[in-house]
Design brief:
four-stranded antiparallel sheet; seven-stranded mixed sheet; mainly beta; globular; 0% helix
Length: 119
């Protein structure tokens, strides 16, 4: 199983970045995909979720209206478009896949990509 994030970097406040997560090795279409971040010195924060069909999305209040999650089941990718970035968005961003199946919980994590918002 592989979840590989890309697209992180350093951007000025107000700028934009697009993160991408490429998935392989599992039944991508059966999983809910999420982006989770860990700001420096803080705990994990789930910021965006999308169901496997792409019809349903959820966002944390901290990113609502600024970030957009999207999924491409043909390419097994999930993207996070981030706009109006703030210094508080500085974090390691992780791609996460999970599902409940027959009473068991399955989840996978990517290695993370650093996003730094600084002037």
């Amino acid at each position: 199983v592989h979840l590989v994030e890309s697209g992180g970097g350093t951007v000025q406040p107000g700028g934009s970045l697009r993160l991408s997560c490429a998935a392989s090795g599992f039944n991508f279409g059966a999983y809910t995909m999420s982006w989770v971040r860990r700001p420096p010195g803080k705990g994990l924060e789930a910021i965006a979720h999308i169901n496997n069909g792409g019809e349903s999305t959820q966002y944390a209040d901290s990113v609502k209206g600024r970030f957009t999650i999207s999924i491409d089941n043909a390419k097994n990718t999930v993207d996070l478009q981030m706009s109006s970035l703030k210094p508080d968005d500085t974090a390691i961003y992780y791609c996460h896949a999970d599902q409940y199946y027959s009473g068991d919980y399955y989840d996978y994590w990517g290695q993370g990509t650093q996003v730094t918002v600084s002037s």
